[in-house]
Amino acid sequence: GESVGLHLPTLSVQEGDNSIINCAYSNSASDYFIWYKQESGKGPQFIIDIRSNMDKRQGQRVTVLLNKTVKHLSLQIAATQPGDSAVYFCAPVLPGRRALTFGSGTRLQVQP
Amino acid sequence: NAGVTQTPKFQVLKTGQSMTLQCAQDMNHNSMYWYRQDPGMGLRLIYYSASEGTTDKGEVPNGYNVSRLNKREFSLRLESAAPSQTSVYFCASSEMETQYFGPGTRLLVL
Questions:
Q1: Other C-beta atoms within 10 Å of B39: how many?
Q2: I need a labelling partner for B55 at 20 to 30 A (CA). Which of A38, B48, B65, B66 fits?
Q3: Residue A37: which of A97, A94, A92, A108 has the closest Cα?
Q4: Is A96 at the interface with chain B, CB within 8 A?
Q5: What are B6-62's pLDDT values in tens digits?
């Protein structure tokens, strides 16, 4: 199976600062990783993904870094905005598996 | 495109009552999923359907049944609701690994 851990259950940042949300995973066979954002009262929303043959991928204001050696990935959000306040989940995916494994998530609070 | 839709949005049941949660997707995805999310926790997989006509148990299937009615629709049934099934239920669909989620059904079992 796959277990997912997060280093910080709650992260509080000032508006305009950069945010870094970390995620550790246990199964080195995971070959695909997805970050989701869940706002209060809503379903998880896809943010960005990365395959295991990459170590970095950038999107709009977000960057995901993957370190397979230590089984760790991070989500960096540049110039954090109040609308970024949410719970963030990482979901590692094993080859051939469709079901996702979610940890408890990290809550990002953006202070104005 | 509406994406993934779920009905109802909210439901209150008494212990022992039954109900069916409905889910539909308009993205022509083959795979569909049902998750539950308890307060302060991540999502746990109840059942999934890799393709029309197939269903498989997930991590927490006890007390639930599912029906993949057609490619668009995947329903979750609670035959005899229990307070432990109070939760938020999310349906999702996918074609590849990335899953797209509905807005959720909030269920309270008294």
A1: 7
A2: A38
A3: A108
A4: no
A5: 999 999 999 999 999 999 999 999 999 999 998 877 889 999 999 998 999 998 999
Read off the tokens for A8.
Answer: 């910080």
Number of Cβ atoms within 10 Å of the Cβ of A91 = 27
Token pair recorded at residue B94: 């996918």
Contact A43 B101 (CB under 8 A): yes
A102 phi/psi in degrees, rounded to 5: -110, 140
> Choosing among A40, A98, A104, which should be mutated to test the B contact, i.e. which has the most B CBs within 10 A?
A98
What torsion do the CA atoms of B105, A85, B3, B43 make, to the nearest 10 degrees?
-50
What is the pLDDT, as a whole number, of residue B107?
A: 97
Query: How far is residue A1's CA from residue A3's CA, in Å, rounded to a whole number?
Result: 7
Quick check: B45 and A100 CB within 8 A?
yes
Which residue among A43, A49, A102 places its CB closest to the CB of B102?
Answer: A43
